[in-house]
């Protein structure tokens, strides 16, 4: 059973999505909140496994809410919900520790599968994520897509060819089991590779590894 919270400023979204998800035997909606500040207050008491967090909310938005949750309850994972593909906020939320994002109008089955993926250590990045992020980065950093994806940090040279393969699959949102199946190796070996990647690239966690892969176009290798 995966215990989750739903954070959204619209009561109909909270109640509607909560009712749909509670129909699934593997999901237990243990609470709701209307913004990031209330989410932290309730999460400190309820200790959910995962929070579905809207990005745009009054008072404390989803980006700041994600930062608060990840700083204070690091074992609680955050999956962003949005009604539009806003690369700037999505990217900021991922950098604050969110494990991916979904559009609110996605089918319930897709949302449930995403919850399971994140719960088991995966990252959820819709396939059009790369283009949105690169578009935002071009606007904010003044770098064209071609040069941005080629100018890799020197730290990438520390990775073995197998670790680069694992990093690429992390950038595509695969969890350890899916990476193991793709590369025909054990999950334990994947975990070792992920740990090495995090250490060598000096990043925080596997979500940051996925962002790294997207940021530098490693998913296109």
The CATH class of the largest domain turns out to be Alpha Beta
The overall pLDDT average reads 87
| Distance, first to last CA | 37 Å
Q: How many DSSP H or I helices?
A: 11
What's the total number of strands?
5
Low-confidence stretches: 142-150
Q: How many domain units?
A: 2
The dominant shape is globular
CATH superfamily of the largest domain: Response regulator
Helix/sheet category: alpha/beta
Beta-strand content: 5-15%
Helix share, percent: 40-55%
What is the C-alpha radius of gyration, as a whole number of Å?
Answer: 17 Å
Stated plainly, the CATH topology of the largest domain is called Rossmann fold
Strand order of the largest sheet: 2-1-3-4-5
Q: What do these coordinates show?
A:
There is one protein chain. This protein is α/β, with parallel strands linked by helices and about 220 residues long. It has 2 domains: about 1-120, Rossmann fold (3-Layer(aba) Sandwich); about 130-220, Rossmann fold, CATH 3.40.50.2300. It contains 11 helices and 5 strands; from the N terminus they run E-H-E-H-E-H-E-H-E-H-H-H-H-H-H-H. It has helices at about 10-20, 35-45, 60-70, 85-95, 110-120, 130-140, 145-150, 160-170, 175-185, 185-200, 205-215, and strands at about 1-5, 25-35, 50-55, 75-80, 100-105. Strands 2-1-3-4-5 form a 5-stranded parallel beta sheet, sandwiched between helices. Strand 4, helix 4 (about 85-95) and strand 5 (about 100-105) form a beta-alpha-beta unit. Helix 2 runs parallel beside helix 3, helix 4 (about 85-95) crosses helix 6 and helix 8 crosses helix 11 (about 205-215). The chain is globular. The protein starts with a strand and ends in a 6-residue tail after the last helix. The model is unreliable at about 140-150 (pLDDT under 50).
């Amino acid at each position: 059973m995966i215990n989750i919270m739903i954070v959204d400023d619209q009561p109909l979204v909270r109640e509607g999505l909560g009712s749909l998800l509670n129909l699934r035997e593997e999901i237990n909606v243990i609470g709701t909140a209307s913004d990031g500040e209330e989410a932290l207050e309730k999460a400190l008491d309820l200790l959910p496994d995962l929070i579905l967090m809207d990005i745009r909310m009054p008072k404390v938005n989803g980006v700041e809410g994600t930062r608060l949750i990840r700083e204070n309850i690091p074992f609680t994972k955050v999956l962003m919900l949005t009604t539009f593909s806003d690369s700037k906020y999505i990217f900021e939320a991922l950098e604050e520790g969110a494990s991916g994002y979904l559009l609110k109008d996605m089918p319930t089955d897709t949302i449930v599968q995403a919850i399971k993926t994140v719960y088991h250590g995966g990252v959820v990045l819709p396939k059009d994520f790369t283009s949105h992020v690169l578009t935002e980065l071009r606007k904010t950093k003044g770098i064209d897509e071609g040069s941005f994806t080629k100018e890799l940090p020197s730290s990438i040279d520390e990775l073995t060819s197998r670790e680069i393969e694992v990093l690429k699959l992390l950038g595509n949102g695969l969890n350890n089991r899916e990476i193991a199946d793709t590369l025909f190796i054990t999950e334990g070996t994947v975990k070792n590779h992920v740990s090495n990647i995090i250490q060598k690239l000096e990043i925080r966690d596997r979500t940051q590894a996925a962002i790294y892969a997207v940021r530098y176009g490693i998913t296109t290798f």
